[in-house]
Amino acid sequence: MPLLDPDSRLLVLAGKGESQLYCYEVAPQQPALSPVTQCLLESALRGVALVPRRALAVMGCEVLRVLQLSDTAIVPISYHVPRKAVEFHEDLFPDTAGCVPASDPHAWWAGSNQQVQRVSLHPACRPHPSFTSRLVPPAGPTPEEAQPAETPVGDADPSEGFSSPPSLLTSPSTPSSLGPSLSSTSGIGTSPSQRSLQSLLGPSSKFRHAQGTVLHRDSHITNLKGLNLTTPGESDGFCANRQRVAMPLLSSGGQVAVLELRKPGRLPDTVLPTLQNGAAVTDLAWDPFDPHHLAVAGEDARIRLWRVPPEGLEEVLTMPEAVLTGHTEKIYSLRFHPLAADVLASSSYDLTIRIWDLKAGAERLRLQGHRDQIFGLAWSSDGRQLATVCKDGHLRIYEPRGSPEPLQEGPGPEGARGARIVWVCDGHCLLVSGFDSRSERQLLLYSAEALASGPLAVLGLDVAPSTLLPSYDPDTRLVLLTGKGDTRVFLYELLPEAPFFLECNSFTSPDPHKGFILLPKTECDVREVEFARCLRLRQTSLEPVTFRLPRVRKEFFQDDVFPDTAVSWEPVLSAEAWLGGANGQPRLLSLQPPDMTPVSQAPREGPARRAPSSALYLEEKSDQQKKEELLSAMVAKLGNRVDPLPQDSFEGVDEDEWALSAPSHFLVYLPRTSLPTSHL
Asked: What does pTM read for this prediction?
């Protein structure tokens, strides 16, 4: 969408769904278009309009103003020229077209081509706040008003026009905060884009200054070879627990490598010991209550259960501990129950979700009702319900022990490229990451009690091909979102009420990652205010990434950041008890070290020492004072060296010593001459 200002010859180009504005300067000679600047928008653009020049803040050197329409706001974007003097600059603001029509319809139909007369933008020459038109006669005066002299319509002052109140035309006190800038090559300065009013006045997250950092290379696992980086979109690509990580390989036979996190470093060039599944791997998951138990789903519609030795995988394993059969098509994803031991849910291309009792090795429950591909599923934190997001554009909530049919249904994302779902806000809400009809990635927040009413909030992010994979921390209500092949990790704090999403600092890496997984909370270093630790899978390495908060008093335990966390590695129920209808709650654990005091109980700091007045440093000094200070500094640096020099303490040599030490023989060198042989 082109927007041209003929007076300044600035051309703004914008596209729907994009997050940038491009500004060019148009010239009648070559080059006709000169790039000026690019403006990065905070949200996707839905529409754009150019503000008339009569509404510009000319005393602030505002040469152009654009209005951006986003999903939730109209954001002004202002372009300013840096000038020292606060005055009207005629070179920047030539006369512009007024708002009084040049002719009436009859004259135009008769062939008149009169142009709208131009008006000055100088504040002293601005018209009065009234509107006079050639077509609409002014209203008659009231009896109390004096009768003014009538002015013929044809003799109306061309400078008269519509004038807004000064408060509408006055630029904010900080115009640089309103919009982008133009490059210095064309004489127009730079300024950041304006934040929406909600982000300025609404609540903010205490995690907004979070800092993501890749740990030292000593903790990396490098020299990874032959990784399968094309796993299905429903899979995270790899899985990890507190002790080890499992990742599928490209080699035939559905091989899975298992690496020990306690053994970082460079892997040998030799072939690694693997788990041989016999079919291509579609998804894999560690048992949350047994760090040695791994479930692997394959394209042959089977689920293989493996047990890794406590010391790690040292040889190739070909026989799994158990094989679960029942699905008729290849499997999408696997999800272990968060509270009950030996309970596993799986989704498949046969459009069913099956719940297995691993101890018995049998299918116990089967959920139906899906009409298309199942993009994702998630257990609620209490383990009573299961939520799914489907390609048919619907969300579903099941109570597996109550009915095989969904308990609730609601509209999901419009796009059909992929989606993920996770329970958030203590189980009161559902967060869905997906795509809209324009393939823009977005987040949708639903109330778990009213799916049919639609999302509570929708947040558009960016345009990218990969589905955002959410990793949710229930202790802080933070969600980390990134996709396979992305270089950025989004970080948001979720609220069950407006504004729902509180943006925090994102983490950016120089190269794309193939996977990103959140580790348990007990792996965080609370002394460094580390509230999240993740594993980032690259093409040839695995590296830990930490997220920390900058805090001044780190000697105290930050109990506002680290509440008691659930003991997720201990089961609350057995599979038999859960299938029988029992429920439970996990045990809570404090993360406070025994030698640290909570910051909420820390003594208050004394008043800060007042800094000396700046006048002490900015006071003007005379040339004589500067000269004396310079000489004093030089003398103080050199010092008065009155001590004797080392050579002054040396004793001389007597004359007789010179005679006694004379050489006893001399060597005399004669010039070379050509002598006959007989004289030698």
From this structure: 0.64
